[in-house]
From TrEMBL:
Identification of the protein by name: Integral membrane protein, TerC family
Highest taxon above the source species: Bacteria
Gene Ontology, cellular component aspect: membrane
InterPro entries tied to this protein: Integral_membrane_TerC
Organism lineage: Bacteria, Pseudomonadati, Pseudomonadota, Gammaproteobacteria, Enterobacterales
Membrane topology per record: Multi-pass membrane protein
Species: Erwinia tasmaniensis (strain DSM 17950 / CFBP 7177 / CIP 109463 / NCPPB 4357 / Et1/99)
Family: Belongs to the TerC family.
Main localization of the protein described in the UniProt heading: membrane
Keywords carried by this UniProt record: Membrane, Transmembrane, Transmembrane helix
Length: 236
């Protein structure tokens, strides 16, 4: 079971999978930050930890059901000469939910004003369920990729655990930063709309390289960081 410890290729696979899980978790952290911000302050840290812990257990469950995960790509039915698998339907549902959720948040931010940002819109349990379900949708491709990159289940599970630990460590700082800066929150919502459209296109087998998406995100964040720095210097 632990013979992989002496295999350098196994350690390379662990490092690759861990980085993959962390990078693909960026959009999940953004969504988590926006959901948790709707809860009372004293519940936010607990919701982050429970939501990510529950999502981690669900990911590990998916990895433990490798044969079932592989079958997610098998066609279920054909519509207009396009084969739809269970993976496609999950991605389509997740993309539509992200578009609806982000659109509602943007509408509230524009029409409701800053005073509504702290209102308790979500229940505690509802926030955790949203975090867990969206994490599964976000991580579905990484789980399938992990199955293809490594033959050792323990390596795949270790990569998931390490990535979630990193996300737990970073989620609070990112959430507090987004909450303090309304313009960053609007940018984060725009990211989620972009991710939602990407998921919908992926469900129709229209593949968009993830590098393009992450480049757009990091470039936009770099520009927004310069704006924040400029505004800070103006007020000092």
């Amino acid at each position: 079971m632990f013979e992989w410890i002496a295999d350098p290729n196994a350690w390379l696979a662990l490092g690759t999978l861990t980085v993959l899980e962390i990078v693909l978790g960026i959009d999940n952290i953004i969504f988590l930050s926006l959901v948790v911000a709707k809860l009372p302050k004293h519940q936010q840290n607990t919701a982050r930890r429970l939501g990510l812990a529950g999502a981690m257990l669900m990911r590990l469950g998916l990895l433990a059901s490798i044969a079932w995960v592989i079958r997610l790509t098998d066609p279920l039915f054909t519509l207009m000469e396009h084969d739809f698998s269970l993976r496609d339907l999950i991605l389509l549902g997740g993309g539509l939910f992200l578009l609806w959720k982000s659109g509602m948040e943007i509408h509230e931010s524009i029409e409701g004003g800053a005073s509504e940002h702290k209102t308790n819109v979500h229940s505690f349990a509802g926030a955790i369920v949203q975090i867990m379900l969206l994490d599964i949708i976000f991580s579905l491709d990484s789980v399938i990729t992990a199955v293809g990159l490594s033959d050792h289940l323990i390596i795949m599970m270790a990569a998931v655990v390490i990535a979630v630990m990193v996300m737990m460590f970073a989620a609070r700082a990112i959430g507090d930063f987004v909450d303090r800066h309304p313009s960053v929150k609007m940018l984060a919502l725009a990211f989620l709309i972009l991710v939602g459209f990407t998921l919908i296109l992926e469900s129709f087998r229209i593949h968009i390289p993830k590098g393009y998406i992450y480049f757009a995100m990091f470039f936009s964040m770099a520009v927004e960081s310069l704006n924040l720095l400029r505004n800070k210097n103006k007020h000092t």
